Amino acid sequence: MIAVIGAGHAGIEAAMAAANLGHKVTVFAMNLDSVGNMPCNPSIGGVAKGQLVREIDALGGQMGKLADLCCIQFRMLNRGKGPAVRSPRAQADRYAYSRRAKQILEEHPQIRLLQCEISEIETNNGKVTAVKDIFGQRYPVKAAVLANGTYLRSRVVVGGNAREAGPDGLLASNALDLSALGLPLKRFKTGTSPRVHSDTVDYTQVEPQEGESDTPAFSFDSTEPPESRAMCWLTWTNERTHEILRQNLSLSPLYNGTIEGIGPRNCPSIEIKVVKFADKPRHPLFIEPMGLDAKEMYLQGFSSSMPVGVQIEALRTVKGLERVEITRPGYAIEYDCIDSTYLSPALMARGIEGLFAAGQLCGSSGYEEAAAQGLVAGINAALYADNKPTFTLPRSSSYIGTLIDDLVTRGTDEPYRMMTSRSEFRLLLRHDNADERLMPMGFELGLVDNERMERLNIKLKQTETEIKRLERKRLTEKLRRPELKYFDLDDPERPELPGAVIEQVELRVKYEGYIRRQQSMLNSMSKMEERRLPECDDYSSVPGLSYEAAEKLNAARPATFGLAGRIPGISPADITALMIHETHGSARRALCDSRMEDDNAR
Ligand SMILES: Cc1cc2nc3c(=O)[nH]c(=O)nc-3n(C[C@H](O)[C@H](O)[C@H](O)COP(=O)(O)OP(=O)(O)OC[C@H]3O[C@@H](n4cnc5c(N)ncnc54)[C@H](O)[C@@H]3O)c2cc1C
């Protein structure tokens, strides 16, 4: 049996992957009514996160399908910008999402769901052997995936009040101490916005934000764009709002020291925004439905842990929110997470065979980042249990690979959120070609079936054929003109083609030069990536290597030059010293070998 501790976005993917690869899986959760819970913004996707969701789908994961089924408004972000930064985003019905996520776990014949708190991970000779719950029940395992999210020793803070609790008023997990397993812990923090009653919003004073009808679905199984069934709205804070927040900064737990955990710099709370960006006269506030029939609205952009009174006073200065009633106050939550550099690229804990970790527990932030890690951890837990080689994704293949590589090689000092700027290959890692990049790997693993592969092959074939046809008709030159689109071409023989194929044809023709350049950069970097580091017992013996680099290499023991090059503190000069050491080493070995041959000959 494989144990998955957590039924959040990481746990769902880990459990489904391991079960789909033939293993019996038990999913443990503190509360089975919060499976796939969205304690923060009720949305899936967004810049770079949209790419992650499509990659998860291409590899055989669940989030894309769940999102297409349970989301209520769809938009393509950065539509007017280059293809590398275009990302689908959807407003989710968080209740429908949680219900459906629980249903797919319950309906899976290999999966058992269990509401109880795991308090101990049992190991023997460096291998995980069982998990134990707070009631003393022991569950023998072949492998286990830790996906505890924001629950470990979590503490919720509003104003000067703090209490041990998980998100959304759920219980914290205080019994499980991962440091006892030798996994170093960090204290992180995140926060969320207040929810308000929809009937207390004046919608005549705010800007409607419509959904779009041509945003592609997250899942490559869906051929039709999903329907937008809900509206969002936009309003703005103003100087009066900022004044109230600034006047009460001493009451903010972020400023009066009540909060110790480190928060995400790129997702600041409103009280930090009005201090850090004091020159800005206003900040956008998106009013988002929590569900299709929900009366609660989420205020995206007003994350706060100010006292409730201050939150209300500040909100009532905002246009459209003058009479607003809060249904749930914004709050901050601190929690323990592990130092992700203690994980291998397969997300296995160093020194504890069979123990994997994924999600917010590994220092990331976001449903999509959690789901991506959960999928890879679940796959590797199954492969480990089958005694098969691990599955890892190079950063050149995907945002999933970039995410995991950044976490396990560089680590993170704040909740890590995916951004397109984190990838040096973002023009190759677009949302629209995630299937081409990852579906064959999912197929090889056994998570993608023949039918999906067949559809992908048809799409690729149609794309190639159409580009060749346009080249023969000398239309590619025209299509390269930025103002012209595929359907603007004077081309009476144009065949009937699916939207996804036309999108590929346009992108490949228009960005051919950029794509080729990035591809050749990728090829040269891959050589470094695959080049194995020379065996070395103690790197401090390598001439020219800095003390810090030797120390870091001895600790991390990276397998390749590529991995070594990304460890913080290892400079290009250190990499050169290693290359020289390798060349000399092989020269020395060649010399020795030839001498031995001579000796033998003699
Ligand atoms: C207040 C708040 C604000 C947030 N704000 C943002 C944001 O602005 N942007 C963003 O990108 N992300 C944000 N997030 C993060 C986002 O919610 C998480 O990234 C995502 O939910 C992580 O998914 P996960 O699967 O790792 O963990 P979670 O979704 O937290 O799920 C953890 C699971 O583990 C279970 N569990 C924990 N300990 C045990 C145990 N000992 N035994 C059994 N079960 C256990 C829980 O019951 C739960 O099922 C926020 C989260 C919170 C709580």
Give a short overview.
It contains 17 helices and 21 strands.
Explained architecture:
There is one protein chain. This protein has a 6-stranded antiparallel β-sheet, with no helix packed on it. It has a 5-stranded parallel β-sheet with strand order 6-2-1-10-21, covered by helices on one side. A 4-stranded antiparallel β-sheet has the order 12-11-20-13, with no helix packed on it. The N and C termini lie far apart (59 Å). It has 17 helices and 21 strands. The chain has helices at residues 9-20, 49-59, 63-70, 94-107, 239-247, 270-276, 308-315, 367-385, 399-410, 434-445, 450-472, 476-479, 499-510, 512-530, 547-556, 561-565, 572-601, and strands spanning 2-5, 25-29, 43-45, 71-77, 87-92, 111-115, 118-124, 127-133, 138-140, 143-146, 155-158, 161-164, 185-192, 195-197, 207-209, 232-236, 284-289, 296-300, 326-328, 331-338, 355-357. By secondary structure, it is an alpha+beta fold. The model has no long low-confidence stretch (mean pLDDT 93). The chain is globular, with a radius of gyration of 26 Å. Bound molecules: flavin-adenine dinucleotide. Flavin-adenine dinucleotide binds at residues 5-11, 28-31, 34, 37, 39-40, 117-118, 147-151, 167, 173, 176, 190-192, 267, 333, 359-361, 365-367, 370, 417. Residues 5-11, 28-31, 34, 37, 39-40, 117-118, 147-151, 167, 173, 176, 190-192, 267, 333, 359-361, 365-367, 370, 417 line the site of flavin-adenine dinucleotide.
